[in-house]
Amino acid sequence: MHFDDRLATVLRHRATGERAGKTQFRQLIDLLGERPQAGDPALKAAAYLRLIALAEMIPVDERARIVGENGWRFRNPELVKWFGEAHPKIAAAALYRAHLTGQEWESLIPRLPIRARGFLRHRRDLPDDAVRVLDRLGVQDRALPLPDMLELLDEVEPTEAIEADLPAVPPPLVLSAANDGDDTTTDVLSNGEPEEDAPAAPPVPTPAPTGGIRALVDRIEAYKRNRGNTGDEAPSLPLGEPEPAVQRKPVASFLFGTDAEGRIDWAEDEIAPMVVGTALTQRRGDGAGGDEFAAAFLNRRPVRSATLTLRGGDAIAGEWTVDAAPRFTRGEGRFYGYVGRFRRAVAASDDRRQDSADRLRQLLHELRTPVNAMQGNAEVIQQQVFGPTPHEYRALAASIAGDSARILAGFDELDRLARLETGTLDLEPGTADFAAIAHAQIDQLQSVLKPRVASFATQLEADAALLPITTGDAEMLAWRVLATIAGATGAGETIKLYLRTEDGQATLRAQLPATLASANDVFSHEARGGTGAVSAGIFGAGFSLRLARAEARAAGGELSRDDQWLILSLPLLTGEEALPSPVDTPGRAAG
Asked: Beta partners for 251?
């Protein structure tokens, strides 16, 4: 089957009655419940809209019965999420029939309503990834276990009630202090009646309690009676030998939740004893933490990269960065706290730059998929893979394929810039002759500038300039600088170029064209170059020069502006490493 038109066939028919509506409802959830496949997104959106329309015709109980029928296996996370936001009866039936992979559950569960997560806890066939996500989110069984009645009585009943049930025990003998200068000792019983001629006897020890609240109370009373005595050992609570302190390693991040007053009422299991009860809304006024979170808390706004200081054990003490969002009840919209994540604070500028780079790379990853699909389909049409195609359509397909290639090249440049500026990409070491590369590329660009009556006035004093990078990286760096300047050069302009080596540096000085010389910041200049043989790329001259600056810095050099000049300086190889290698000698420059 080359084309799957089953969904379109179902949507072409209108359900005119309840019976027809039930039939179409089953057909739609059967088709949408399959594994996500490539298809028309508009057709899938129309299917969900049809399900919403059918819901007005079919009662809730009937829909829940249909969804809970044997034989359903919902393998589409989108449909499972859609059912999870429906009526509780329907959500429970759909989540019981859902069969997803561990990775799909891990991505889906945090996006489900809290009520729907509770339904999942009753399943015993979930993958380990799903169980870990539920544990991390604090989803537990809704039914509380039945308590042990004997333990409950031992812990809760008052002391008088327990003593009333025990058999009568003779009270212990308590001795009074001896009188000064009197040889006779008066013993006083616990009932207050004196007994004469009673021999002195040691106090009768009280039986040691066996456990529970009474044992704790008796131990406290014993400590209060004997706290005046000096001894080597002091009583410790709870009973038993104290356990050695456990050395905890610092925590990098943890999830948390607060109540409506801003106090942490939930956190991950290992962190909860150390942070539960901490107030996050206390204003300190010294920048130590709380001010930014408190301001957002008053207005019920999301918190983004707020700095906060936690005090406590070594595992949590220090500066933290908080990201959190307010929570509201679904029915009434009542505010009941925040939920978010604590992560160890790093340098603010590095943190923001890293987050921005990560978001950009994720966006590029999402955009490459449709562009690759367009390019592939265009090449199929242009090459007539599936049969003859009119020349007009082949020309259009070739144009689309070319535009797609330029877009993908721009994505690669964006990704390279993000990785270079955040330090996640380093240039590979090697040996490249920058002087030979500059000679070859300038000769190529002279032929491009000649039709404009423009030219490069060069003064290349260096015969060889060996750099500690590969030939490919050196050619890309030189081409970004020279081609960007050539693309911005106007008709009749003459651009001066100087290349010399001194003090262990190779320095290329290039005069800026008039269009770039008038810009306040040449590295953020937004002017687009032409679409001819030489241009600055789809993002303009400023972006190309910024990428060249990032590459120069990764190579240990710098690209900067000095008034009307652009200066590229790169470190040279020294000693034995500077000996030229025939393998690294460029045969031609990249263009």
From this structure: none
Contact yes or no for 280/310 (Cβ under 8 A): no
DSSP E strands in 39-177: the ranges are: 174-175
Question: What are the structure tokens assigned to 169, written together?
Answer: 């025990």
Q: How far is CA 134 from CA 80, 112, 324, in A?
A: 16, 11, 19
Rounded to an integer, what distance in angstroms lies between the CA atom of residue 536 and that of residue 527? 9
> What are the extents of the domains in the chain?
6-136, 253-345, 351-421, 432-578
Single pTM value for the model: 0.42
Q: Which amino acid is at 120?
A: L
- Angle (nearest 5°) at CA 473 between 470 and 479: 135
d(CA 561, CA 567): 6
CA-CA distance, 30 to 38, in Å (whole number)? 17
Q: What is the pLDDT along the chain (591 residues), one digit of tens a residue?
A: 445 678 888 887 877 778 888 888 888 888 888 877 666 788 888 888 888 888 888 888 888 888 888 777 788 888 888 888 888 888 888 888 888 888 888 888 888 888 888 778 777 788 888 888 888 877 665 444 444 444 444 444 444 444 444 445 445 444 444 444 444 444 433 444 444 444 444 444 444 444 556 777 777 777 766 654 444 444 444 444 444 545 556 788 899 999 988 899 989 888 888 888 888 887 655 444 557 788 888 888 898 888 888 888 778 888 888 999 999 888 788 898 999 999 887 654 455 666 666 777 778 778 888 888 898 989 989 888 888 888 888 999 999 998 888 888 888 888 888 888 877 778 888 899 988 998 898 988 888 888 888 889 888 877 788 888 899 989 989 988 998 888 888 888 899 998 888 888 889 999 998 888 888 888 887 766 554 566 667 788 888 888 889 989 888 889 998 888 999 999 988 755 555 544 444 444 444
> CATH for 432-578, among 3.30.565.10, 3.20.20.150, 3.40.50.150, 2.170.150.40?
3.30.565.10
Q: Which of 281, 278, 277, 276 shows the shortest CA–CA distance to 298?
A: 281
Q: Which fold has domain 253-345?
A: Beta-Lactamase (3.30.450)
Q: Distances from the Cα of 397 to the Cαs of 74, 400, 405, in angstroms?
A: 38, 5, 12
Strand extents, DSSP E, 121-259: 174-175, 187-188, 194-195, 253-258
CA pair distance 28, 272, nearest whole angstrom: 45
What are the residues whose beta carbons fall under 8 Å from the beta carbon of 457, sequence distance 6 or more?
Answer: 494, 495, 496, 497
| Residue type for position 353 | R
Q: Which residues contact 44 (CB under 8 A, 6 or more apart)?
A: 7, 32
Quote the CA–CA distance of 368 and 376 in Å, as a whole number. Answer: 12
450 token code pair: 């000649």
